[in-house]
Amino acid sequence: MDKILVANRGEIALRIMRSAREMGIKTVAVFSEADRNALHVRYADEAVCLGPPPSNQSYLLADKIIEVCKELNVDGVHPGYGFLSENAAFANALEKEGIILIGPSAYSMEIMGDKLSAKAAVKAYNIPMVPGTEGAVENLQEAISTAREIGFPIMIKASAGGGGKGMRIVHQEAELEEQMNLAISEATSSFGNGAVFIERFVSSPRHIEIQVLADKHGNVVHLFERECSIQRRHQKVIEEAPSSIVTEEMRTKMGECAKDVARSCGYIGAGTVEFLVDENLDFFFLEMNTRLQVEHPVTEFISGVDLVKEQIRVARGEKLSFSQEDLKINGHAIESRVYAEDPQNNFLPDIGTLERYVRPEGPGVRVDDGFEEGMTIPIYYDPMIAKLVVHAENRDEARAKMIRAISEYQITGVKTTLPFCKFVMEHEAFITGKFDTGFVGRYFTPESLDNRNSDEQEVAALMAAYVEDTSSTTILSSASVSSVSNWKRNRTLHD
Q1: Mean pLDDT of all residues in the chain?
Q2: Pick from 1, 123, 232, 375: CA 20 to 30 A from residue 493's CA?
Q3: Domains in the chain, number
Q4: Residue 106 belongs to what H/E stretch?
Q5: Residue 45 belongs to a domain
Q6: How far is CA 158 from the centre of its chain?
Q7: pLDDT of 283-328, one tens digit each?
Q8: Pairwise CA distance, residues 454 & 466, whole Å
Q9: Do residues 17 and 40 lie in contact, with contact meaning Cβ atoms separated by under 8 Å?
């Protein structure tokens, strides 16, 4: 494999290209008109514009991407995540043209892309699953009967769902018909598939996932777990590896289950098996993501494995170069997703220009991004600016390093999730590991950040007054800046 096309944009495109370059593989970038000056476009050996900014006129144009592959003699395509990464039709089209997809087969995507077919596939392996319907709910009476059998509250889920869409919690029978109709409607509009099923609602769930790797020779390994319970709108914001609640025995059981899920669909490459864990530490299969995950860097830190390089090697037909026994957990890693969102305004996107953009540095700090100072966050795509990842010897040190890195990450021009991420790092529930997917609803309010913001604004005002009156002998009392670090005071004076 001498040349690959990265069918994506932003930080993940750049991250893939770096590993490819280290392997001596040339890269081709594709981009929309909005991304003409993007970092991944400048980094690639070749770049081709797909069309206007909207995704359906650029990054989702499978036929055009395949044309580019043929024109530039591309050997393989890495889809990253999002866009076409789990599109079985795209995978089939590449195969017909003799172009290697650096990812699983279309068959695996189809099986695991539908929650009901995924449940059916793993059933033969005795994978623990949340009690509920085995197939789609056909009518209200069936829904009522199932709900009575497993007990309220229940969860209605879209078979083709993701990102919390087509999902409804029902606490009592009187709400069931309305919520079921709403779930079907949302599933139909979002996925073109209105099939829904019912499961028992798992109270206080933890969202824990297992990274798997499988080659074309029947070898399957897992690379331990990631804790992904800090979420907003059913989407992750902070991830860590390993989880603070997973014991060695539990890790082994979950890992073996994850490998069996991969075997159930003949999986090839890197994938993620997601589980719900209840208050009794019982775990249940949730779904499989047939692609590289956003949070893969925390696994890379604790395992020492470059997942993108492994994906490429597997796609070339090579055997995994290590066994399960060769893998071990090294330290602790935490990732904070840096979104251009306003945590004090319901995490709504806050698009604009990065007036100031300075990354944190130091041992064990990694920033995966696709932006630099002066660039504008496009309104057409996911508002993630970067992934801030840290690694340390243990969880406490990793948490402290993340707080330090967040404090040194300078971004102005747009609101970001960095203040929220720092709030999480400093919260007692996170420190003790006693949290679940309800963290945001239970602990976070917009006012939670008010004190932090007001402290920084006060110091900024004091610094401004100091700079303006340079001829005076005004001395700032230690009490007036006691809550702010020397680094922040000095930065304000010298910026």
Answers
A1: 91
A2: 375
A3: 4
A4: helix 106-113
A5: yes
A6: 20
A7: 999 999 999 999 999 999 999 999 999 999 999 999 999 999 999 9
A8: 18
A9: yes
